[in-house]
Amino acid sequence: MKLFIVLVLAFNVFAQKGLTVVAVGEAEVVKEKIVVEEIYKEGLIAKPDLDNAEKILEVVRNDFRFYSNYFSVQPKASALGDYESLNYDFYRQKEVNYVIRAKLRKIATQTQLEFRVLSSTESKVLANSALSLTGDYRALAHEISDLAYKAIVKKEPIFKHKIVFVSDANRKSGTKELYVMDFDGANVKQLTFHRGIVISPSVSPDGQQILYSLIDETKVKKSRNINLMLLDLRTMQTKSISRRKGINSGAVFTADGQSIILTLSHQGNAELYKMNLATRKLERLTKSGAPDVDPSITADGSLLTFLSARPGKPMIYTMNPSATENQVKRISYVGKFNATPRFSPDGKEIVFASWLDNRFDLFKINSDGSGLGRLTKDFGSNEDPDYSKDGQFIVFTSQRVISQSKALQNVYIMDTEGKILGSLTENFGKCISPRWLKSLKI
Amino acid sequence: MRGYRAVPYHLFSLGIHALLFALVFTFTGTELLSGPKEKAISKKMRVIGKAIKVDVVAMPKMTIQELKKMAPAPGKLDKAPAKKVTSKGGDENTVFKKENKKKSFADMLKELSQRKVKKAKAQPQKKAQKTAQDSGAGGFKGKNLSKILALGNKLSEGNSYTGGAGSNSGDIFDTYATEVSETVRQWWKLPGYLMNKNLSCRVQIYISSRGKLLKYRVIESSGNKDYDDRAVRALQRVGSFPIPQKEIAARVAAGDIALAFPL
User: Fold this and answer.
1) CA A26 to CA A13: how far, in whole Å?
2) Predicted complex ipTM
3) Among 3.10.20.30, 3.40.1410.10, 2.120.10.30, 3.40.50.2300, what is the CATH number of A162-437?
4) Burial class of residue A114, CB neighbours in 10 A (0-12, 13-18, 19+)
5) N or C: which end of chain A has fewer CB within 10 A?
6) Which residues contact A227 (CB under 8 A, 6 or more apart)?
7) In chain B, which residues have their Cβ closer than 8 Å to the Cβ of A363?
8) Superfamily for domain range A32-153
């Protein structure tokens, strides 16, 4: 190590084509300051339109607060000067990097919301667009945030993404249905009406289909089975995918969306299978005496992680799902009871829940088994984590016991290092199994 | 009599066997069989060792957030290279020693005079440690390595890689180049979304004899315009660069220095 450092030191200043190249070193990480100004008006604007526009801009401010590792959202600033010309110097002096400016404008009978994203450091307009002030104002706000974020970061944010979850809210005791909400917890809609117990939802890569398991409560107890269902969000039609005896559960889509990987116990022991959705043909992936459940697959489909009781207690494993028992590798060696391993979008990390100090907490580990780190602590019992599509957030559920008969369980969001941003559901029954759903109008 | 025959006989037999077993067991523990037994134990130990390695490790009690607040890793790593400064000096000396075999006593005195320069450098190093700690970097994703490299950069003064054979101008030039990089580093800032992307760019700089930036040229782009722009902005935000010594002023103004962001 010493030798290595010495060698590295020796090469820090070196000549390149007659030049002497000097390393500046790693940059200091800074948060970019962003301001969403108050609304500009052009012509006579009705009061409801004005109120809606102000609400939209407040949602935009809130959207950027989610990316608190990147941005520091400044308090709203009053509209200064002419809409067309930003006083870049003014904001540079205040060390504000980006400004979002919006204007309401009446065109014939329509009210338009124009907006632009400006960079004070570069003294230029990064994005410029206009939307008609109709429909759901929150959707318009997320649209503006989405365009602004893309103009600044050059990556797709989560603002137009949704979260699917299961809740017993407003239901007959014991039954649970599937719901969907915006990424920020607003706009909750019910998706299934089975009067049964919905568990383990999973969204297709294109965001158009949802797999889930259903325990049919309308049947008598003996004939209840855990069946696998598929909901098409374009038609809102539900169909049955697998009704084999025993467990038909924990299914996830493969990267191409053509196949699913699921747990079946029709042959006695719970094992993982791959099923082609068109032909329904099965291909066995695991073959062991112990139950193998809870699969999660990388975006490129090369690595599968699952939970197996092979060592005597549930531990995390990975495998190449191209054949049965292919390159099976144990990843976790600690924890009394590990659960729900889920890959990050780049497939480099696995987040999971583990039983510690009489509750579940969330941990993450590199997919090669290194770098085990703890994410949650002293925050109730935390389970069911799921990475956002951009890899910047993890949604999970957190349960708090109020009394012997009452417990609260809500969906929360945190960054990938365990900084909790807040709860997304409140007073909506016991919420479980949150899963990200890539932008789709539902 | 029956009782006397049956029970005591079996008890006697059991006692004898137990004694024999105990004797054998005792002897196997002595020097007689100690060699093979040690081997057997050590073999077992290896296996057990593997098991222990796995089972003793528990789920981490502290969260990543708590560890970051404590920031033990950056502290330790910052100290480590700092220690290396002295040992590094020793290593440098070993290089010099080889040269000294051929060099005169006067050269040795020069070398000693260079050590004084090192003391003057101690301050910027502290600064870098501060910025590194302030930024909260370290402990994850190989940042520590980068930090070692960054710190190492400052420690590498006095090495002569370019020109100046027989004179000290190479050393002066490298020292100056390092000072320039330190000046720029204070303004080298990136937002979170540009970190950990393995981006790097190189910018050639031309500095006047009065320490003003005459011009710059991105000689190696990172492929990300935003990143390159921010590197250039760091240069531009430096009000005045250190004033180069006369011997090297011409080379500095001719653009002989290029800055690598980060390495």
Assistant:
1) 16
2) 0.81
3) 2.120.10.30
4) middle
5) N
6) A213, A214, A215, A216, A240, A242, A243, A248
7) 59-60
8) TolB, N-terminal domain (3.40.50.10070)
For residues B69 and B75, give the distance between their C-alpha atoms in angstroms, rounded to a whole number.
11
In this complex, the residue of A5, A26, A28 whose CB is nearest that of residue B152 is A5
Determine the 3-state secondary structure of A334 from DSSP.
coil
> Which candidate in A16, A24, A333 is best for mutational testing of the B interface (most B CBs within 10 A)?
A24
Contact assessment for residue A365 and residue A350, using Cβ atoms and an 8 Å cutoff: yes
Residue B112 to residue B93: CA distance in whole angstroms: 10
pTM of the complete model beyond 0.80:
no
CB atoms within 10 A of CB B209: 15
DSSP code of residue A235? T
Assigned token pair, A410:
């809500």
Across chain A, which has 442 residues, the per-10-residue mean pLDDT values are: 40 58 93 95 90 95 96 88 89 94 90 95 93 92 96 95 94 85 95 92 94 80 80 93 86 92 90 94 93 93 94 94 94 91 95 93 95 94 96 95 86 96 93 88 56
Whether the CB-CB separation of B218 and B202 falls below 8 Å is answered with: yes
Query: A218: which residues sit within 8 A by CB, 6+ positions away?
Result: A194, A195, A196
Q: In the structure encoding, which two tokens stand for residue A337, read together?
A: 């009871």
